[in-house]
Amino acid sequence: MLGQVANYAPVVSRNTIVKNSIASIWQAIHLHYGFQSTGAHFLDFSNIKLETDERPEDLYQRLMAFMEDNLLKQNGPILHHGEHLDTDEEVSPSLENLAY
Questions:
Q1: Where are the alpha helices (DSSP H) in the chain?
Q2: How far is Cα 21 from Cα 16, in angstroms, rounded to an integer?
Q3: What is the CA radius of gyration of the chain?
Q4: Alpha-carbon distance 67 to 55, whole Å?
Q5: Model confidence over 10-30: pLDDT tens digits?
Q6: What is d(CA 22, CA 43) in angstroms, rounded to the nearest whole number?
Q7: For 52-99, how does the pLDDT look when each residue is reduced to its tens digit (9 = 90+)?
Q8: Could you tell me if 71 and 89 are in contact, meaning their C-beta atoms sit under 8 angstroms apart?
Q9: Among 1, 2, 24, 34, which is 20 to 30 Å from 55 by CA?
Q10: For the whole model, what pTM was predicted?
Q11: Where does residue 34 fall: left (phi above 0), alpha (psi -120 to 50 degrees), or beta otherwise?
């Protein structure tokens, strides 16, 4: 199955995909395309607007995807008060309400 994934990701070495874990593959793809999570783009949230010919549900999904992409991960690159989290952060009801 990873061989098929490698067919659709020619910019990443085939061995990087075929001989590694899914987490390592995502790391390589994020690194290659420059969207490694750093928290630096979180202020871009305010620039997400309803596009022409876009349904409100599409906007909601983009907002939620942005928030989920910026949640803190256990032992991830972003620290909270200088420390790693013990568990992955979940979307709270308050955070979800921001998208409404």
A1: 2-7, 14-18, 22-33, 56-69, 93-98
A2: 9
A3: 16
A4: 19
A5: 777 888 878 888 777 777 777
A6: 29
A7: 999 999 999 988 888 888 888 887 777 788 888 899 999 999 988 988
A8: yes
A9: 34
A10: 0.58
A11: left
Tell me what percent of the chain is helix, strand and coil, each rounded to the nearest 5: 50, 5, 45
- Identity of the amino acid at 21: S
Owner of token pair 């990443």:
12
Q: With contact defined as beta carbons under 8 Å apart, do 23 and 11 qualify?
A: no
- Whether the Cβ atoms of residue 67 and residue 95 lie closer than 8 Å to each other: yes
Residue 50: what residue type? L
Q: What is the Cα–Cα distance from 74 to 9, expressed in whole angstroms?
A: 27
Cβ distance 48 to 67 under 8 Å?
no
Contact at 8 Å (CB) between 91 and 68? yes
Q: Which two tokens stand for residue 13?
A: 């070495």
Q: What are phi and psi of 74, to 5 degrees?
A: -60, 125
